[in-house]
Amino acid sequence: MALRRVETIAAMISRSLNWVVERVIAVLMLALVLDVWLGVVDRYIFHWQMNWPEELARYLMIWAALLAISAGIARREHIGIGMFVLSLPMPIQRTILFCVDLIALGAFLYLAIYGFDFAAGGMRRQAMIFGMSLMLPYAAVPVASLLAAVQLLLVALRDQGRFVPVELAEGAE
C-alpha cells in the first residue's frame, strides 16, 4: 500500500513538473521562431544590420533543447530503449530499466555538479554581441541536468521497474 502511495505521489509531481517545463519550452520556442523571423526580415527586407538575433536564437535553442530532455524522460520517450526493453521478459525488463535509470541518474547528477562550476566560470566571460555575462546561457547545462535527474527519479518511483509505452502511460496526452 505504501509503494502504491509513493507511485501515485511521484506520478503527480512528475506530471506537474512536466506541465510547467513543457510550457517554458513552448515559450522559448515561440521566442526562437519570432527571433529567427526577425533576423530573416532584417536581412532580406529592411537591412537594419541587427547582429543579435542569431546569437539570441542560439541561446534560446540550447535552453529549449536541454529542457526538453526532462520532458522526454517524463514520458519515457526513448525509441531505442523502448523497442529493446519491450521485447524482453518482464524480469529482465525491470533489471535493464533499473540499470539504465541508475546510469542516467549518475550522468545527469555529474553534469549538474560540474555544470554549476562551468556556469560560474561564465560570469567572467562576456557574450560578444550582447556584452552580457555568459553565466545565463551556460546555466542551461546544470539547470536542465538537475531537472532531468529529478524527473528521472520521479519516473523511476512512478514506474517501479515497469516500462509503460508512452501511448499507454497515464497523463501522457
TrEMBL record:
GO terms for biological process: C4-dicarboxylate transport. It is a multi-pass membrane protein. GO terms for cellular component: plasma membrane. Pfam families: DctQ. InterPro entries: DctQ (IPR055348), TRAP_DctQ (IPR007387). Keywords: Cell inner membrane, Cell membrane, Membrane, Transmembrane, Transmembrane helix, Transport. GO terms for molecular function: transmembrane transporter activity. The chain crosses the membrane at residues 20-40, 56-74, 95-116, 136-157. It comes from the Bacteria. It is found in: Cell inner membrane. Residues 36-159 form the Tripartite ATP-independent periplasmic transporters DctQ component domain. Part of the tripartite ATP-independent periplasmic (TRAP) transport system. Belongs to the TRAP transporter small permease family. The complex comprises the extracytoplasmic solute receptor protein and the two transmembrane proteins. This is TRAP transporter small permease protein. It comes from Thalassospira alkalitolerans.
